[in-house]
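Deliverable D2.4 — example input (structure tokens):
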């Protein structure tokens, strides 16, 4: 499995270090967009500045993307191998108002919008808010309605 993490770093021309591999592995294992605080809690022996520097490096090499889900805390998610974080690569995110987790919904691309003349789009923030499947089950909410 370590090869998966090495491959992802290699694709983005990022030198693999033990800390970078640890942070990438942790992000991928969490299977959702994570905040800096989430990583600090999960990696309690890792210095906060090391996590921040690693996230900044990952962002600059398009290994991860940032998600502003409206919670007041930027979240980060690992990109697909073919993603270059262009407008065309952007997808929907889902923010659960119960557990406060944010998920990438890669199967739903962000819609294209025709802007007035002179305007240039550089990004899209497409976030749906509601209750995630896990919380719906635990709260007994029927999501088929």
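Example output (designed residues):
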């Amino acid at each position: 499995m370590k090869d998966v993490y090495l491959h992802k770093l290699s694709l983005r021309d990022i030198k693999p270090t033990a800390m970078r591999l640890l942070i990438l592995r942790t992000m991928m294992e969490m299977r959702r967009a994570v905040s800096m605080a989430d990583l600090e809690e999960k990696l309690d022996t890792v210095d906060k500045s090391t996590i921040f520097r690693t996230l900044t490096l990952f962002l600059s090499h398009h290994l991860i993307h940032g998600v502003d889900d409206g919670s007041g805390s930027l979240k980060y998610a690992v990109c697909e191998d073919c993603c270059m974080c262009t407008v065309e690569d952007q997808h929907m995110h889902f923010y659960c108002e119960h557990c406060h987790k944010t998920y990438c919904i890669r199967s739903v691309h962000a819609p294209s919008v025709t802007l007035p003349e002179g305007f240039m789009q550089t990004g899209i923030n497409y976030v749906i808010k509601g209750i995630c499947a896990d919380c719906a089950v635990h709260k007994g909410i029927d999501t088929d309605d």
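The CA atoms of residues 1 and 14 lie 18 Å apart.
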